[in-house]
Amino acid sequence: MAPMKLYGSTLSWNVTRCVAVLEEAGAEYEVVPLDFSKGEHKAPDHLARNPFGQVPALQDGDLFLWESRAICKYVCRKNKPELLKDGDLKESAMVDVWLEVESNQYTPALNPILFQCLIRPMMFGAPPDEKVVEENLEKLKKVLEVYEARLTKCKYLAGDYISVADLSHVAGTVCLGATPHASVLDAYPHVKAWWTDLMARPSSQKVASLMKPPA
Question: Is 140:184 a contact under the CB 8 Å cutoff?
């Protein structure tokens, strides 16, 4: 069977969120780059894959999916369902909870920091808005306090097993490490240990290697 195709740029943390799961699940896939400067993400052929003209999009045969976390869940169900804990009602519920926490608490605090510290200078030649950065660092710290409390009770977010909920954090947190605020995790020893464990995995190392901008 042909490998799945993941459309987008590996500099996008939404695309590499999927890469982390594809790698961890041992899936056969290839990344098909899109050139945003040429508007390829808004071209008719990509709009047929993702009607919102965004990335990522995943093609598996005649199936097209978009939205990174939906793609991640599909890949898990197809290749490594234990990353969802679908066979256990309570464990799968905790995976769902922490995937929602990543989506609705962690990432909304993180994204403005990444935009200000990485995207603004690279794409627009503008310095970060430090007020925006500081406001969102405070939000992120409050989220990390909850993570710290959780990770005193278990090795990973959903329990003592790695899941898609953990892997969904990899790409964004790798990007955080490229900002002047990477040390924010150091104040939370259990979070730091969790992150060190995640980064030791080949799937996370693959993400980190792909997200290095060209020299």
Answer: yes
